[in-house]
Write a structure and sequence with these properties.
Low-confidence stretches: none
Radius of gyration: 20 Å
Number of strands: 8
Number of domains: 2
Order of helices and strands: HHHHEEEEEEEE
Helix content: 25-40%
Shape: globular
Largest sheet: 5 strands, antiparallel
Strand content: 15-25%
Mean pLDDT: 88
Distance between the termini: 41 Å
CATH architecture of the largest domain: Sandwich
């Protein structure tokens, strides 16, 4: 007896630009409002629209780089994303693996093809959210003949390099470096380098990731 494959909505928004979050959220809110295929959404769609409008307004206000407004914008972004993730789980179940029904939700379907993810930079393999709020897990990419590594990170506002870095020595790269005590809603920049016989390599290109 073959099992029915579910259709998983694409709900990974962590690395999506603010404007794209607004665009995707608006499409979902519009298509799900009054949609008979999804009569009992777990999120009030009028409340979602209000949250999107608030987030959009804060994006414009945050262009001047004020820390208070940027932090408020980031918090509102997470509010919208949480609503979308709740709706995604509902749509996944309620569509009953019917592609035509699923497509009326406004969500995009996640790819079912398994791929090997490319490293984020030449010395950072991947970054994921930690088990608790304010924590991140960072995997440093192994380099042949390296004695050890250094990982540095700092808050990055609107894509600008950190004004101050925190640097950690990394002796093993099989598992992640778990960082805690970070500020939820802030975007952090990460760089890594390796210690070889002749000295340290250059720092890798910066990789940014938002903490939640």
């Amino acid at each position: 007896m073959s099992s029915v494959k579910t259709i998983k909505p694409l709900d990974g928004f962590s690395d999506v630009p603010d404007a794209d979050v607004v665009s995707r959220a608006t499409a979902i809110q519009t298509k799900m409002t009054g949609n008979s295929n999804f009569p009992n959404p777990p999120v009030d769609l009028a409340a979602l629209k209000a949250a999107i409008d608030s987030f959009s307004a804060l994006i414009a206000e945050a262009l001047d780089g004020g820390k208070k407004v940027v932090a408020e914008k980031n918090r509102q972004r997470e509010t919208v994303i949480r609503m979308l993730r709740l709706l995604a789980r509902y749509v996944e179940v309620a569509c009953k693996a019917d592609v035509a029904v699923f497509e009326t939700s406004g969500f995009e379907a996640a790819s079912t093809t398994k791929t090997t993810s490319d490293p984020l930079s030449e010395k950072i393999r991947k970054i994921e959210h930690g088990a608790n709020s304010g924590s991140l897990a960072v995997w440093v990419k192994a380099l042949r003949k390296a004695f050890s590594y250094e990982l540095r990170y700092g808050p990055s506002a609107n894509g600008a390099p950190p004004t101050a870095w925190t640097t950690l020595t990394v002796t093993g790269v099989k598992g992640p470096v778990v960082l805690s005590g970070l500020t939820p809603g802030f975007t952090y920049a990460f760089q890594a380098r390796a210690l070889l016989k002749e000295g340290f390599t250059d720092w890798s290109d910066s990789v940014t990731f938002m903490c939640t």
